């Protein structure tokens, strides 16, 4: 961990040991740590007003504690050059002689996230500083926003930044002829500024080579003798530690590797040579493709590591088996061993041709020969392959020029030959073509596909004869015949359109050139998909008008006419039993608890069906207040009743 201290002061104020002085509206770059090491960290601030009104005898020396910044407008500090996305603790303090209306400073720390506001009372403060922990953003920056929470005044006396701060420990270069290869010396060139270096190490994956307890007081070079097995290949990092603070790391060039490897065998009685050739995919040797090989049987060969090219390994001659492997960039591991055999006396072996297996062809009755352009024969001739221990891109072909056209029945030896390799050598091999004539022509053997069940969409009226699953099933029939190459057809003549629901026996037929017929059957079952589940259908009653007595204020929810109207609604679902009801409570006047005079759109909803679906409908409810009854109305009523 390292610490940077910043003193907020005026330009004319004294410098304080271990503190970086910051003046208003300024930027200070390459801030020093408390141990005096330079860093890439900088701080800038807005237009504060400087003053020396802080309390003396405070937490820090008076020259730090008494000078301060103040303002009534919001202010900020911006800290840059930190390690990106790394946690830092920011300490903040301030003090003032004033003891009224000055107690309200608050800070908010902004990095990859925001922390705060954190409050401090600067009035007569001599011992308090506040702090917050925040991660720097992706650019290695933290912003401190300063505001007030009581009154208008904002203060700052100083800041402290604590965390993994990168420091310059004076690494001029790491000279290893990048990348590092076992057997090389690695030199770390240090400058005079690196006078607090205590450790230098080379790191590759989880493996480290370390030089400890170093004291560097001037330009010097720290050397490492990296021997076989010290470091694997790949990205190697030089890490330098200064005191207990975080080091500056330098990553060396990574090693790019490739898997295109060819090993060349030795000459008799000569030293063993192993060569890596460019098989069309290797970069140039300068790209640093590294291999490791080790003898596992035969003569004694030493372990060695080479770049792309040819390398001599001390050892005898004879039949040797070696293993070769390659360093895989990214995963920083060796790949699997590949076992190779070196054959004594062969420098560049001839190509190896692998011919096809014997081809038997049965001619139908009445035939006596096979055309040279027969498709089965042509395809067979192309199945030979060739390989070579050095060259790539070789081809192989058959020579049937000596055979008559057409080719008569019998056993024929077919020669295959490769194109020449880089040494002018050709690989050869032979295969047998056996042509016979059928003694009897039998009917085709038809094998129908397995029984199948195919589901078609609901409401489709049957299974379409163009259905992809049906077409694929019909084409899966297999026909074997001793004289003809045949295919079978399915008899769908009974269906004039879509195939109806149910099981159907489908007959597959094949007829050969002699008119012989073979057939087989299979069961096709057509099934209609289940009907989709729709939401319930709600039927609302007709619109209604309900009149309440003059002065009654409205109708209640248990009004008999209203209940009877609600009961007229119903719901129907395609699968479930559901009911319907009106939502009336939303129309009740909260003050009176009644549905007052007015016109309302009433929603009728179903209960939830088995799929969680609900149906809705609406109707109009009109509530009307009745007419006022007068004395004349009463008198006329009495007359009507004969009173």
Essential attributes:
643 residues, mainly beta, Jelly Rolls, Immunoglobulin-like, 6 domains, 6-stranded antiparallel beta sheet, 5-stranded mixed beta sheet, 5 helices, 6% helix
Would you write up a description of this structure?
This protein has 643 residues and is mainly beta. The chain has six domains: 2-163, Jelly Rolls (Sandwich); 171-251, Immunoglobulin-like; 272-342, no CATH class; 352-437, Immunoglobulin-like; 445-528, Immunoglobulins (Immunoglobulin-like, Sandwich), CATH 2.60.40.10; 537-625, Immunoglobulins (Immunoglobulin-like). Strands 3-4-7-12-9-10 form a six-stranded antiparallel β-sheet, with no helix packed on it. Strands 2-1-14-8-11 form a five-stranded mixed β-sheet, with no helix packed on it. The longest helix has 10 residues, at 631-640. The chain is flat.
């Amino acid at each position: 961990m390292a610490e940077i201290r910043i003193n907020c002061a005026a330009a004319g104020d004294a410098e304080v040991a271990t503190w970086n002085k910051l003046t208003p509206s300024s930027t200070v770059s390459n801030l020093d740590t408390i141990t005096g090491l330079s860093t890439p960290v900088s701080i800038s601030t807005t237009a504060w007003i400087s003053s020396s009104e802080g309390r003396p005898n405070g937490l820090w020396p008076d020259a730090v504690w008494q000078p301060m910044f103040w303002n009534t407008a919001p202010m900020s500090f911006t800290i840059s050059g930190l390690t990106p996305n790394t946690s830092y603790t920011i300490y903040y303090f301030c003090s003032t002689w004033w003891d009224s209306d000055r107690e309200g400073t608050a800070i908010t720390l902004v990095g990859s996230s925001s922390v705060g506001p954190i409050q401090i009372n600067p009035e007569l403060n001599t011992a308090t500083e506040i702090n917050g922990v925040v991660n720097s953003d992706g650019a290695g920056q933290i912003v401190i926003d300063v505001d007030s929470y009581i009154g208008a005044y904002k203060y700052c006396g100083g800041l402290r930044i604590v965390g993994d701060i990168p420091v310059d420990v004076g690494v001029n270069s790491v000279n290893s002829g990048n990348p590092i290869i076992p057997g090389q010396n690695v030199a770390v060139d240090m400058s005079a500024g690196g006078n607090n270096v205590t450790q230098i190490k080379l790191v590759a994956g989880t493996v480290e080579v370390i030089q400890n307890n170093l004291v560097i007081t001037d330009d010097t070079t720290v050397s490492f003798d990296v021997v076989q097995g010290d470091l694997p290949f790949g990205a190697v990092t030089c890490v330098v530690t200064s005191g207990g603070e975080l080091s500056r790391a330098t990553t060396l060039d990574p090693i790019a590797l490739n898997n295109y490897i060819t090993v060349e065998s030795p000459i008799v009685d000569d030293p063993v040579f192993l060569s890596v050739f460019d098989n069309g995919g290797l970069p140039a040797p300068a790209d640093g493709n590294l291999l490791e090989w080790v003898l596992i049987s035969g003569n004694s060969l030493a372990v060695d590591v080479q770049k792309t090219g040819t390398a001599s390994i001390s050892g005898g001659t004879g039949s040797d088996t070696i293993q070769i492997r390659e360093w895989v960039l990214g995963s920083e591991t060796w790949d699997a061993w590949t076992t190779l055999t070196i054959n004594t006396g062969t420098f560049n072996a001839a190509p190896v041709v692998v011919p096809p297996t014997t081809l038997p062809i049965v001619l139908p009755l009445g035939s006596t020969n096979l055309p040279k352009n027969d498709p089965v024969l042509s395809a067979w001739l192309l199945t030979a392959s060739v390989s070579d221990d050095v060259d790539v891109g070789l081809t192989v072909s058959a020579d049937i020029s000596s055979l008559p056209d057409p080719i008569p029945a019998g056993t024929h030896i077919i020669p295959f030959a490769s194109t020449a390799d880089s040494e002018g050598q050709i690989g050869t091999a032979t295969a047998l073509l056996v042509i016979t004539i059928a003694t009897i022509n039998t009917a085709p053997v038809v094998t129908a596909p397995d029984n199948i069940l195919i589901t078609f969409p609901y409401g489709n009226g049957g299974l379409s004869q163009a259905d992809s699953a049906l077409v694929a099933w019909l084409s899966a029939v297999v026909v074997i015949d001793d004289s003809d190459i045949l295919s079978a057809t399915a008899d769908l003549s009974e269906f004039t359109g879509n195939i109806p629901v149910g099981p159907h026996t489908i007959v597959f037929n094949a007829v050969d050139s002699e008119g012989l017929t073979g057939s087989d059957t299979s069961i096709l079952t057509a099934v209609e998909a289940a009907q989709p589940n729709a939401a319930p259908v709600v039927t609302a009653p007709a619109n209604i008008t309900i009149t309440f007595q003059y002065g009654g204020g409205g109708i209640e929810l248990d009004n008999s006419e209203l209940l009877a109207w609600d009961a007229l609604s119903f719901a129907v679902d395609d699968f479930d039993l559901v009911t319907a009801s009106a939502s009336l409570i939303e129309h009740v006047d909260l003050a009176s608890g009644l549905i007052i005079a007015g016109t309302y759109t009433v929603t009728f909803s179903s209960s939830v069906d088995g799929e969680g679906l609900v149906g809705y409908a609406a109707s109009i409810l009109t509530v009307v207040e009745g007419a006022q009854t007068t004395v004349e109305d009463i008198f006329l009523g009495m007359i009507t009743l004969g009173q």
